[in-house]
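Hi R.,

Here's the chain you asked about this morning:
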Amino acid sequence: MRKLLGTLALSLGLFASHAQADVAKMYYGIGFTDGKMELTNAGDKSLGTINATLGFQLLDFVGLELEVGAASDQAGSIISEPLVTYQAALIRLGYRWDRAGFYLLGGQARLDIDKSLNSTDAGTAVGLGINLFGSETTSLNLHVLDIDDGTFTTASIGFQYYFGGFR
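And the predicted structure, written out as tokens:
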């Protein structure tokens, strides 16, 4: 047992000293979207949506991303009285080529929906996106997120800021 603990402590120490050189890069962003809500009784409803993103790029191709958003059919009530709010915790798998980054998203999301629209409250979230970098730290972001098999879908355009640059 003592040998196992010693080996574990040594390997964690080596990992920590190596991980210090590759510090995770943080980024944040904001987007404006057109959301689509699948109604339980009749068709789809288009909603204006605003979202915010906070992410950590752990490796060149793997990251963690948290996204929150609010949607409404009235532009003045998106923040004050939204019909839909959502929170998503996602894993981001991506590839950078020159000044463009392409990525896939997958994870879990929580929906808070007005009961007159739909009764779903959680589900899987999948998506994809493109970052077009104008400088080392800022990018134009095009992003699609599908929550709970099409119950709520967003297609956004926004900006992201990368602390320390994208490389």
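Helices lie at 2-21.

Let me know if you need anything else.
M.
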